[in-house]
Amino acid sequence: MERQNIFRKGFALVIFVFFIFLSTVQSTETVINKSKMFYYPENSTICGFVTDFETGEPIFKADIEFFVEDYQGNDYDYWVFSDKNGYYIVENVSAGLCVEYGAYKTGYHFYWGMGQFDIPENETVWVNMSMYPRQPETSKVCGYVYDNYTGKPIFNVSMALHWFDIHGKLTYNGTQTDENGYYSMNFGAGSCDICTIIDEYIDQIIFLGYVFDNETYWANFSLDPEIRIKINKPEEGVYFKNKKIFPFFVPLIIGPIDIEFNVTLVEGYPIDHVEILIDGVSKQNYTSEPYVYQWYEMTPFRFRHTIKVIAHREWYGNRIRELEVWKFF
């Protein structure tokens, strides 16, 4: 019995040592495999000068960046600033392919390097950059943006301005309309266009053509809504027993009335359904014309009401039209 116990313990010890050996071999193989991943030595250099395209003067503190990929697909990102002489130097660069590079400086157009180039191992590569100065924005474009259907100003319209300056460089500017639909932006001499960007309206663009320095240009916009909603009845006037009897400065209703409205899709995503609400309470949903709601309920304790028509779109913004009315009995 004692011999059997010794045998069992010895066998277990052999198995344990065997597994330790396998683990060590596997670990060694893993280290060997990892060591096969070769990283190219970072012993190359990129340098050059950054100058003003118009004057040839050096540009101080231009932000310069290079994106390099070595021949095994490893990525590197290098950046430096130019000195007072416009000179920059990027040391300890990996051999490989420079896939992108550029320079940024306030007051200049962004310099984007054209084409890729090789970086040999332990070599110095010269890359000079000439940056175009931004033109002085001495001119102004301004105007108003209105709803072409209602004639009311549109608030918070994004206005995008693009122009090609005298060097053919594309420049952007942008702003938003205020509560009066007014906007104003500065820009420099060149070929210019301006466009609107806002949900629920059809975008519009105006080409100003070539503009000059120190000028003011007006560009007004009348935007068509993607969905037109018009409440045809009631309108301004006094209604008695569902009929308009004479004009008035507000809709004033005595007794029951048929609310009639039109909903037209001009452009964009289709309408799922149309809903009418009175004082925030949903009254009826429509999937087709005619859009008529018979408002026959009496409101003895409330005289001022809000009629709201909503054109619902599942995948896009809804369109809403509201009307304040007075109703008695």
Order the strands across the largest sheet as they lie in space: 20-19-21-27-26-23-24
Q: What does the oligomeric state look like here?
A: single chain
Contiguous runs where pLDDT drops below 50 for at least 5 residues: 11-36
What name goes with the CATH superfamily of the largest domain?
Immunoglobulins
Helix-strand pattern: HEEEEEEEEEEEEEEEEEEEEEEEEEEE
Count every helix, treating DSSP H or I runs of 4 or more residues as helices. 1
Relative strand content: over 45%
CATH overall fold name of the largest domain: Immunoglobulin-like
Q: Averaging pLDDT over every residue, what do you get?
A: 88
> What is the structural class?
mainly beta
Note the overall shape: elongated
Q: Termini separation (Å)?
A: 110 Å
Rg over CA atoms, rounded to whole Å, is 37 Å
**CATH architectural arrangement of the largest domain:** Sandwich
Helix content: 10-25%
CATH class of the largest domain: Mainly Beta
Kindly state the number of beta strands: 27
Q: How would a textbook summarize the main sheet? A: 7 strands, mixed
State the domain count: 4
Search tags:
single chain; 329 residues; mainly beta; Immunoglobulin-like; 4 domains; 7-stranded mixed sheet; 5-stranded antiparallel sheet; 27 strands; elongated
Topology readout:
Layout: H1 2-35, E1 44-52, E2 63-69, E3 75-81, E4 87-93, E5 96-104, E6 111-112, E7 117-119, E8 124-126, E9 129-131, E10 139-147, E11 158-164, E12 170-176, E13 182-187, E14 190-197, E15 205-211, E16 216-218, E17 221-223, E18 227-233, E19 237-240, E20 243-246, E21 251-254, E22 257-265, E23 273-278, E24 281-286, E25 292-295, E26 304-312, E27 319-328
Parallel strand pairs: 1-8, 1-9, 10-16, 10-17, 19-21, 21-27
Antiparallel strand pairs: 1-4, 2-3, 2-5, 5-6, 5-7, 10-13, 11-12, 11-14, 14-15, 18-22, 19-20, 22-25, 23-24, 23-26, 26-27
